[in-house]
Amino acid sequence: MSKAISRRNFLMATGAVGAAGLLAACGSKPAASSTASSAASQAPAASADESLALSDGPVNLSISWWGGDSRHAAYQSALEAFQAEHSNITVEPTFAAWSGWEEKMAAAFIAGNAQDVCQVNWNWLYNYSADGSKFVDLNTTSKFIDLTQWDAAAMDACYVANSQQCVPVSMTGRIFYWNMTTFNKAGITEVPKSLDDLMAAGKAFQEKLGDDYYPMHLGAYDRMILMVFYLESKYGKDWADPITSTLNYTEDEIAAAKSAIKTLGGHIVKVEDYTIPTSDVVHRLVIVEKVSPTPRAYPRAFAKIKKAPL
């Protein structure tokens, strides 16, 4: 009789789960299935036992993800289909909204008691498994998952520490949502298509709707991105090295951006270096406090930024 499937081989399910993010198999805690599976889980965390195979015996596995209602529904639908095909496997899901989720998962990764299969963000590979120890190298699960069905470029982004640590199930990006009801009240009938359009919209908002109306709202994360764009346009280099996951800017260079941040209504509180637990990866945190409204002259067109940096 073949050995029971362990968490490392649950990656069969990832082909059906297409909601969002990346999926990785954790290799740091015993699988809650049969004795054979528990014994197999003693293999190195970054690889799977090639001798393992599917079993007719009972298998219990766990999976975790974060998101909204639509993502929860998509995952649960995929799990139902998976369990219908593999009736001997019981999958226990854990899911919630994003707020506080990374902190919870970071503690689980460090303690070695995360779920068997986890939805992760791309940067988590560097933050929590920079040495390849937390997530299984999926190249060792070729008996159960065809890695050629994914785009090579997307897969390359998941290749860290000489290990295929996860598979992408969606690609995400930040987009703009425009409240055209308010734009129409300001006499604007089309969404901004350029920075010049956006600047003109700001002036129209102020003139027709008053000082309490703005064409764009930027949260803390968006303001951070804006500061990164400013630094990259001024110094002509990436914010961080994508290979080494290290910052490309010195404290002096970041300090030089203080006047720009002040102009935009912010105040740099402090700059701290933070070492990711269980790794040698160092991140530099720039803490910015919003202290006043951003002038309507910003953001500016790239040509103006290049010609006259703040």
Summarize the structure.
By secondary structure, the protein is of the alpha+beta class. It has helices at residues 35-40, 69-85, 101-111, 124-129, 152-156, 180-185, 195-209, 220-235, 251-255, 258-263, 302-307; strands spanning 22-25, 59-66, 89-96, 117-120, 159-160, 163-164, 167-168, 240-241, 246-247, 266-275, 282-290.
Largest sheet: 5 strands, mixed
Count of β-strands: 11
In the sheet with the most strands, the strands line up as 3-2-4-1-7
Strand portion: 15-25%
The rough form would be described as globular
Radius of gyration: 24 Å
Broad structural category: alpha+beta
User: Can you tell me the residue ranges where pLDDT is under 50 for at least 5 consecutive residues?
Assistant: 1-20, 28-45
- Multimerization status: single chain
Query: What's the SSE pattern?
Result: EHEHEHEHHEEEHHHEEHHEEH
How much helicity do the residues have?
25-40%
Distance between the termini: 70 Å
Mean pLDDT: 75
What does this structure look like?
It is a single chain. The chain is of the alpha+beta class. Residues about 1-20 and about 30-45 have low confidence and may be disordered. About 30% of the residues lie in helices and about 15% in strands. It has eleven helices and eleven strands.
